[in-house]
Inverse folding.
């Protein structure tokens, strides 16, 4: 991700407006930025020749603004591709007013909702190259970066080439040893129609694997890395099998639903009726929605509400760093979402504005520990997505995504 203006970020953090899905907001003018694709878990992947991703956000400006979206092709490591053929500055931005709708009557926290399909709007009617992409949302004069996010454009989407297996990790103790093994199989087509699409087997050497919508924590398989838990069978041939055998199983996410206006009326601080959350170490959670959010749309109750996240911890743990993650903050352990210890209740608390809806979420301890508070269990069913990169030496060289494959693990023991 690119770094935005730090002063604007500071203003945003003070207001604590929450992004509704996996993106980053730099200005309080933008609310509830969300992006989803056609794949399982609404993983934000578009197909090169069809099926766009959808970007949406809300604003509270007096009148609709003429925002501009700029897209950049990136390397597999999310650096902007240094090729003017691939990143043509004359063809990478929207050229007309983005489509919008007025907020329903009685909605108080925003006035306009913008919904954009990429590709599919003027100026960005088509993507010529597959790969990683970042988008930037700018004001009309392109003087202020308001928000940004990332998505994928793949040449093929498959639900049959990725296989998941339960596995014991011998180097760990229970429940840390309950992991997943992923195997992505790919065969280079025997007949490749166009010279521009001929694949050299030596440049098919990198796969990133994601769990659900956790876009900030990929697990990499790479021929150039000597990691003990990653393997590539058949590299250099036309039949390859990329393997990784230490993927955390995780636990089913917690679920928060504030769609019911009788239980959560407007103009109150919403809290769970079940009380404060508790640690789920060695406990299996209920089923979830694979990390995605479902928002209320189109009526007077599709407004933002203030929700209080709350988790109970022993008094001796008052200096713990506990962060809530979900689709509202890109599933990132962002310090802006750190809970604060409340001495009166002996709980950790955080209040945030969220578009009314239902959200998966969980807690991260000390910035990078996703399991101590949440547990880890084979019975958890998740959507895993494998992205296969090809380093194309044409057009100054760039990283293509020749395949995006998905599979659910089986659950069970």
């Amino acid at each position: 991700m690119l770094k935005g203006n730090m002063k604007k970020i500071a203003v945003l953090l003070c207001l604590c407006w929450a992004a509704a899905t996996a993106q980053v907001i730099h200005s309080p003018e933008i609310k509830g930025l969300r992006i989803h694709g056609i794949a399982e878990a609404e993983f934000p992947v578009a197909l090169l020749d069809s099926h766009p991703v959808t970007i949406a956000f809300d604003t509270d400006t007096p009148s609709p603004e003429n925002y501009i979206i700029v897209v950049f092709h990136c390397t597999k490591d999310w650096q902007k591709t240094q090729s003017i053929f691939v990143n043509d500055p004359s063809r990478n931005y929207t050229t007309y007013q983005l489509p919008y709708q007025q907020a329903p009557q009685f909605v108080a926290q925003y006035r306009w909702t913008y919904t954009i399909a990429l590709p599919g709007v003027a100026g960005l009617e088509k993507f010529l190259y597959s790969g990683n992409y970042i988008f930037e949302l700018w004001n009309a004069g392109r003087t202020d970066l308001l928000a940004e996010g990332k998505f994928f454009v793949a040449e093929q989407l498959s639900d049959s080439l990725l296989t998941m297996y339960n596995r014991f990790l011998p180097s760990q103790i229970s429940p840390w040893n309950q992991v997943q093994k992923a195997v992505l199989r790919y065969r280079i087509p025997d007949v490749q129609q166009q010279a521009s699409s001929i694949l050299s087997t030596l440049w098919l050497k990198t796969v990133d694997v994601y769990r659900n919508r956790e876009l900030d924590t990929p697990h990499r398989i790479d021929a150039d890395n000597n990691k003990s838990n990653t393997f590539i069978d058949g590299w250099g041939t036309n039949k390859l099998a990329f393997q990784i055998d230490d993927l955390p199983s995780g636990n089913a996410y917690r679920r928060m639903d504030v769609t019911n206006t009788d239980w959560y009326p407007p103009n109150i601080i919403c809290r769970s009726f079940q009380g404060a959350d508790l640690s789920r170490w060695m406990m299996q959670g209920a089923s979830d929605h694979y990390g995605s959010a479902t928002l209320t749309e189109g009526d007077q109750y599709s407004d933002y509400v203030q929700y209080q996240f709350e988790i109970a911890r022993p008094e001796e743990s008052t200096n713990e760093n506990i962060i809530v993650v979900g689709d509202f903050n890109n599933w990132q352990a962002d310090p802006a979402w750190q809970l604060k210890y409340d001495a009166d209740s002996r709980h950790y608390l955080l209040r945030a504005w969220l578009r009314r809806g239902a959200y998966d979420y969980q807690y991260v301890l000390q910035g990078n520990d996703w399991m101590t508070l949440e547990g880890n269990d084979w019975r958890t069913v998740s959507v895993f997505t494998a992205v296969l990169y090809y380093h194309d030496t044409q057009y100054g060289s760039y990283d293509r995504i020749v395949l995006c494959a998905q599979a659910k693990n089986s659950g069970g023991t």
Observations:
- The chain has one helix and 26 strands.
- The chain has a mean pLDDT of 90.
